[in-house]
Amino acid sequence: SMQCFPSLVLALSSLLGALALLQLSLYLRVPSRYGKHEERLCRPRGRLPARCAWFLQELPSFLVPALLLALRSPPRLEPLGCRLLCCLFCWHYFYRTFIYPFFTRGRPFPLQLLFFGTLFCIYNGFLQGYYLIYCAEYPNDWCTDIRFTSGLLLFLLGMGINIHSDLLLRQLRKPGEITYKIPQGGLFTYVSGANYFGEIVEWFGFAIATWSLPAFAFAFFTLCCIGPRAYHHHRYYLKTFTDYPKSRKALIPFVF
């Protein structure tokens, strides 16, 4: 059966951190080519409907940890804290794979970005799942540790913000519409990237609850990947809508 190799966890986590910095350098000035930023850049040739693309991209993040768990002998997670942490990760990606795609009203998704997104989900799904299922060691009372409880609260808060913000964005469009409008309500009152803010809070909460290098590397990657996108969304709204609220920040309420 598979064993834990700490050097592999360290290498994969370090590479994830390096990929985060690469993302930041690539997309800090120029937004990635999909959604509202696609029109101003050259259009990719191959695209898939948004629902299909999101389903295919996110699926490995749910399936890979499930497969790793099935391959473990005996197939169990101990203690309870470790089991709950693995469930949190899979819970997020169950939503992103089996619920979110079937309600999204986004534009067709470029195949090139889908390919790289799917590769990342396989990679990160393996890293987080492998660490939690084969390597993580927690005390039996980890569920009462301040790191677990505070991280869990942040994770739930972030996931709630993310799901609620996605709902508000969907309600901006009627079925078949592709025009962009000013998001209203919820945390969008304060920031342009409320959905991104929620996901960043969610994964930093997960990192605190897990207190592991792989989880912190993933949270850092999330910040470097979707943080700049929130910034570019903010600039897009300011340029496109003359009545866009000037008090809104890009990502962090009252700060940035």
From TrEMBL:
Residues 108-256 form the 3-oxo-5-alpha-steroid 4-dehydrogenase C-terminal domain. GO terms for molecular function: 3-oxo-5-alpha-steroid 4-dehydrogenase (NADP+) activity. GO terms for cellular component: endoplasmic reticulum membrane. The chain crosses the membrane at residues 109-134, 146-165, 203-226. Keywords: Differentiation, Endoplasmic reticulum, Lipid metabolism, Membrane, Microsome, NADP, Oxidoreductase, Sexual differentiation, Transmembrane, Transmembrane helix. Its EC number is 1.3.1.22. It is an enzyme of class 1 (oxidoreductase). It is a multi-pass membrane protein. One of its GO terms (biological process) is cell differentiation. InterPro entries: 3-oxo-5-alpha-steroid_4-DH (IPR016636), 3-oxo-5_a-steroid_4-DH_C (IPR001104), SRD5A/TECR (IPR039357). The keyword Membrane applies. It catalyses: 17beta-hydroxy-5alpha-androstan-3-one + NADP(+) = testosterone + NADPH + H(+); a 3-oxo-5alpha-steroid + NADP(+) = a 3-oxo-Delta(4)-steroid + NADPH + H(+); 5alpha-pregnane-3,20-dione + NADP(+) = progesterone + NADPH + H(+). Gene3D superfamilies: 1.20.120.1630. It is found in: Endoplasmic reticulum membrane; Microsome membrane. PANTHER family: 3-OXO-5-ALPHA-STEROID 4-DEHYDROGENASE (PTHR10556), 3-OXO-5-ALPHA-STEROID 4-DEHYDROGENASE 2 (PTHR10556:SF37). Converts testosterone (T) into 5-alpha-dihydrotestosterone (DHT) and progesterone or corticosterone into their corresponding 5-alpha-3-oxosteroids. It plays a central role in sexual differentiation and androgen physiology. Belongs to the steroid 5-alpha reductase family. This is 3-oxo-5-alpha-steroid 4-dehydrogenase 2. It comes from Hemiprocne comata. The lineage of its organism: Eukaryota, Metazoa, Chordata, Craniata, Vertebrata. The gene is Srd5a2.
